[in-house]
Each structure stands twice: as structure tokens, then as C-alpha cells.
Amino acid sequence: MTSIPQLAHMPAYISAYEQAPANLPHFSWGGTGPPMHFLHANGYPPGCYKRLLDTLAGDFRVFGMLLRPLWPKAVPPEIHDWHPFSRDLRHFLENMQAGRVIGMGHSIGAIVTLRTAMYAPGLFRALILLDPVLLPRHRMLQLQVVRTLHVAHRLSHIAAQALARRRHFDDLEQLFAGYRRRGVFRYFSDEQLRTLIEGITRPSPSGGYELAYSPEWEARIYQTGIWNDWDIWAGLSRLNLPVLIIRGAESDTFREGTARMVVRRNPGIKVVSVPAATHLVPLERPEEVFEATREFLRGAL
């Protein structure tokens, strides 16, 4: 079995962080085409998307802000919903002065990108949203009631799973073997799964490897998300940008019913379902995501 190469402490694509807000942590993936901003999902640093980003860099200049969990000095209690992430992105794009960008994001990255475009549409040429975390309004209302009753922590099973996640690893081959047995990764090739493992880990100062993405931050995002996205549903009908949503046909996050609701709110939005794919569609089917993106943008721009 081929071993996973050791990573540098800070991956080369990550820019150095400085406290000045104009220089938010970000990465540059290269490419010389139109600017494309990519925003990663909760728990999945940009390196997890290597196969997709490498392909995109053949047609676009790919770069992206890092979400706060990957900032050295950010702490989970500073957020209570996902709105601050969109303010971060707006600030970042305005200071980058990259011109109007193609905004692509996965999961929370898709919602943060969408909300930013609703409030600052002049920053974007088009949106590619990869299985966005968007629930129907009746589900959001249920979550709001739960939060009001102060029992959200009892129902946040996925956050509890994040907090219980193993953080340190002596051997990434053992991690690979464990992940290979998990059904959630059933559509990953061995190569894709190794890329994922390289993306979510980094060498630990005490030896071995550790998660690059704090479980406390991952849980905080689960606990604070979705319930306060009323502005997303309200703004969909007014959104006047080319928008493509790519979902996994087996997604448990952006479901077919939600897709129909989105298109009813804004018939100009196109939704594509990728077969044999889940919420992790850009990691499972990077070539299909790239082809759908390229075909859409050829007709939209």
C-alpha cells in the first residue's frame, strides 16, 4: 500500500495570516483564467478538494478565503449564526480587488457565498453552489423553536459526533483503513480518500498527526447554522445572477424537495443532480462537478 506523504506544518497554498482585517487568511491555487473564489465546507480544508481545484485551475484563477475555524486566533464562541462568515467574505473580496468573481462554495461555503451575493451582488459574475446547507422554512421554524426552548444541545447529534471525533493519529495508514470501512466514503476511490486524509490532517508538534480543523469549531458551526437563514429564502426571488446548484443525487442535505422550492422561488436557478453522489459530491465526483460548471458558465457568461 502506498504511504501518504508527510505534509508541511502549514500547506503551501495557505497564505500567511496577519492580524490586519484586510489580510484575512486565504489560499491561492493558481490558474490564469477568470477569477473563481472557492469556499470550503465545515471540517474540510481546501486541500481536501485538490482534485477539483487542480482541474478548475486549468480554466480559472482559483483562490479562496479560509473560514474562521482555520484562522489561528479565532474562537468558536464568537459566532451565533453563520452571518459573520458572509461579512468576512464580503470584506475579503472587496479588499482583494479581484473584480467580479465566479463564486463557488460547498455546504456552508455555498450558503456563505450565496448570502454574500445577495447583499453584494456586484462582487460576483455567477454562483456555483455545491450541495448547499439549506433547509425548507418549516424545518427552520422547528429549529428556531428548539433554540428558544434552550434544548438545542440535546438534539445536536452531529455536533456531539464532531466533539467525540478522534483528534490525534500515530499512523495515517490506520486512519485510511478505518475510513475505508465507513459507508459515508463509499463513493471515494482510494486516491480520493487519501487526498481527503491529507487535507484534514497535519503533523502534530507532539508527534504523529492531528486534525487540522478543530472539532470544537466544527461542532459550533453545526450548532449555530441553518436556523437563521430566513434572509436566504426571502432573497432568492430577487437574486439576479447566473446560479447553478450541483447536488448529490443521494444527498441528505440539499434534498430534491428543497431544490424544487428553490426553483419555484427563482426559476432562473439551475439545479443539476449528480448520480452516485452524496453531500460530499465535489469530493466524490470532481470531474462531473467540473464539467457541469464549465458547461453552465459557457452559456451563462
Task: Identify the notable features of this structure and list them briefly.
disordered N terminus; 13 helices; three-stranded antiparallel β-sheet; Rossmann fold; 10 strands; alpha/beta; seven-stranded mixed β-sheet; single chain; 301 residues
Can you walk me through this structure?
The protein is of the alpha/beta class. The protein has helices at residues 50-56, 83-96, 108-119, 137-148, 152-155, 157-163, 172-180, 190-200, 215-224, 230-236, 256-265, 281-284, 286-300; strands at 26-30, 35-39, 61-65, 101-106, 124-130, 168-169, 201-203, 209-211, 243-248, 270-274. The protein has one domain: Alpha/Beta hydrolase fold, catalytic domain (Rossmann fold), CATH 3.40.50.1820. It contains 13 helices and 10 strands. The protein has a 7-stranded mixed beta sheet with strand order 1-3-2-4-5-9-10, with helices on both faces. Strands 6-8-7 form a 3-stranded antiparallel beta sheet. α3 links the parallel β4 (101-106) and β5. The model is unreliable at 1-21 and 151-155 (pLDDT under 50).
Residue stretches low in confidence (pLDDT < 50, at least 5 long) are: 1-21, 151-155
Order of helices and strands: EEHEHEHEHHHEHHEEHHEHEHH
Strand content: 15-25%
CATH topology: Rossmann fold
How would you describe the shape?
A: globular
Radius of gyration using CA atoms only: 18 Å
**Rounded average pLDDT:** 86
Strand sequence of the main sheet, in spatial order? 1-3-2-4-5-9-10
Q: Which class best fits the helix and strand makeup?
A: alpha/beta
CATH homologous superfamily identity: Alpha/Beta hydrolase fold, catalytic domain
Helical content (DSSP H or I, runs of 4+): 40-55%
**How many separate helices?**
13
Q: What is the architecture at the second tier of CATH?
A: 3-Layer(aba) Sandwich
Number of strands: 10
Top-tier CATH class:
Alpha Beta
